[in-house]
Amino acid sequence: MSEADSRGELTPTLQPAPGSQHLRFVGDTIRFELSLAQTATTPLKVRLRTTLGQAREVLRSIIEPVESGSTPTDEGWRDLEMSPDGGAWHIDVALNQVGFFKATAHVRDASGFQHWVEGENITISVHPGHTRFGNTIYCAFPRLFGATKTTNQPATAPLDERLAKLEDGGWTIIPPSGTLRDLTAELPHILGRLKCKWLHLLPINPVPTTPDARMGRYGSPYAALDLTAIDPALVEFDHETTGIDQFVELADETHRLGGYLMLDLVINHTGWGSALQENHPEWFRRLDDGKFESPGAWGVIWEDLVEIDPEPVALWRQLQEAFLTWCRRGVDGFRCDAGYKVPLVVWRYITAKVRLKFPDTVFLLEGLGGGWDDTETRLTEGGMQWAYSELFQEFSGTQVAGYLDHALKQGSRIGLLVHYSETHDNSRLAEKGRDWSLLRNRLSALTSINGAYGFTCGVEWLADQKIYVHGCAGLNWGADENIVAELAELNELLATHPCFRDGTKLTRLSPHESPVFALLRESKNGDALLILANLDCDKENALELALPPAWQQPTDLLGQAPPNTDNILSQRERSRESGSTATRFRLDKGAVHCLQHSKPKPSEPPIPERLAQCVESGIHS
Fold first, then answer.
1. What letter would DSSP give residue 223?
2. Which residues, in sequence order, are CB contacts of 137 under 8 Å at separation 6+?
3. Verdict on whether the full-model pTM lies above 0.85
4. What DSSP designation does 266 have?
5. Is pLDDT of 606 > 60?
6. How far is CA 533 from CA 195, 328, 388, 395, 564, in A?
7. Which of 223, 464, 489, 501 sits most deeply, having the most CB atoms within 10 A of its CB?
């Protein structure tokens, strides 16, 4: 060992800690700091080894082994010199690319020996800059936007006697349904009046129409026959435009009104007789008896579907081209149905191919039914950004507190868990009444991270007929009793208030089993919000919290009565102990409050001029 060789003598320590996981956004910076447990007596070179700033190289290292069979020799790693800083070293790295990146560090002594930081690599998930706040999602089933949308009819409405006899005799009876243009006409309502940011479309591909291959009267949109085609039932035949043209009209109008478009694309299965199945039956799973296999979950087999075998690499190439095709047509993100059933290696390839050409694309994992490991790996190595939250199926105080502890933790390190108050697979919230729907929507929105909150079409109109995807339920559109104003108020709050932006600290204050859930939101600029939710719509409940005196007379940002009125703070009893800071809040049945003790400081972004004109002129129906 040379005199300058310090091997075994230097112990570098890195911050952030090795093995830690971080979520950031394009436009941020991240600081790395290295220190030594010993005082160095010889000159040292300290370098950060990272893939940050190397998005293209990282993506190519995923793609090339698939397409050429080669072993990647360059995964994008590079060394960045760290600057000395009073006996330590640091570097600030600008985050200007979307992707999943890694970092570690080493110290090089005068002999050239490298002393590496012990532990796993630090990982950094960098998301598109526009997703740092206001990610409100409106889930639309285009079929429901036709003549029946103003009704509250069940998904499978009774037919007249003549048609019922035909259907019973095996004839295909498919009534008219909504079109893409019907949905386009409602964009001022969705993006303007409701102030949603994302329009999420259920699948729009052609579906089977023959009785043996079709489930229900209309067929399920999840039984796609062609991944890049559009169901003719969703198209107006005007002799001038194609279905693709009319989809592009929808995408263009969404963007013109300031929104983003998300498409549900299914690659775990297809419908019977799909183009893939007919041309490549070898790409589908078969049972031991040679029959094609249908997928299922929760003990239910979906017999109108046939499951794809994800092993053939040639299949991966067709799948990624489908995603790219929709991106070229104006799609900004994808809901990945049953994404946990698609192997990680397939998702890595698909997301890498898409991100090379459309770097800001958002992938939303539908991982319900899979394990947490499936979700975590797809939100990191798999190149996805968001996943479904399971808050919609948690109800008691213990359930809500436990799940939100998990969601809030994961949302700050690997990816957002989007709180859909109601999905297309669940019973309607309004089935249990207006108060229940308002409670669950407010809870989902006000406990969201970065405003990642969604709801299904018709929630705003208190539609109570369950959306069966093989039917055509009414949306109760235009009903006098509705929660349109309340949802718009929530969405505006998520888009403008600092406490719903990135970097907000979220702390649960209520006990684990409390029927009143309390969450403190503290923004980077010093704003604070106290969220209180009585999870019980049948009983008043109380919660005592130790809070600073500033919370004695808060303002409710939901447009409800001010603190000193009977229906808010008249229900609160202060502790009678002299000098105590304990405050007792009494909440009405199902009540939710968003309290602030100082003057609100939101900075509302400008509404696009054309969108404002559309809303003002009442284009929405």
1. S
2. 196, 197, 198, 199, 200, 262, 418, 420, 452, 453, 454, 455
3. yes
4. -
5. no
6. 23, 43, 22, 12, 18
7. 223
